[in-house]
Amino acid sequence: MNCKNCHTDLQENDDYCKNCGGKVIRKRLSFKNLFEHLSETFFNYDNKLLRTFVQLIKNPEDVIVGYINGVRKKYINPISFFGLSLTLSGLSIFIIKKFYLEHFDFSKMFEEITVNQDIMANNTFEGVLEYNSLFYAFLIPLFALISWVVFLNKKYNFTEHIIIYLYSISFLSILFVLIAQVVLIVAPESYMSFSFLSWPLMFIYNCYILTRIFKLSFWDLILRSIIFFALFFVAYIIISFAVFFIMLGTGAINLEDFRPK
Questions:
Q1: What pLDDT, in 10s, does the model give residues 34-71?
Q2: Cβ neighbours of residue 122 under 8 Å, at least 6 residues apart?
Q3: pTM value > 0.90
Q4: Sign of the C-alpha dihedral computed for residues 178, 181, 185 and 190 taken in this order
């Protein structure tokens, strides 16, 4: 008998491959064992995904610093974790656009500046949904760059700062998606209020993990947060103008939409 994953010779009574650790599958695929496999993968406390998620709340430095220092088997790797967050985010956006779009009305936000507020509001919100995942992906290198500058005298390089935010942004994205589905079911009109709360929650969580990773004192955290916000504000202004002119050049927005009433 050979391992189906790496083709290593196995004994008939082996349950796991001694070379790659893969489980020996003897039963033919059925709905029953498929469901058992999915349950074991996603809901078993000992699996990497759930263990990673729980530890990013309880002991985030064990996950993040552990990976940076070479621990590869204990938790899910940051790229896979980020891929899962993008998948769930995309599914959430599909659900919103398919079933809940009528609950969101942005026209009042534009009624003082444009005669085309309905079109502009709809285009704006659909654009936010369409590029939500790309926006979160862009935040990772941006946060990592700013964080690397803020903690320049510390031991982690730019790539290792990317690992920090791959884990933190992915964790927050998955958490927000899960909570958002409950909000959409219970009170869909409150979804936007919940979305606005995601920013302070993101700030609080990242302060939490950075404090744990870098062993920051309260005042050290305050000082570095101020520097981080200052750099982020400058970057945000520059990027906002760049995105505006790109959208203007590609025709995604029109200056006529901003005509006073």
A1: 666 656 655 554 578 888 999 999 999 999 999 999 98
A2: 106
A3: no
A4: positive
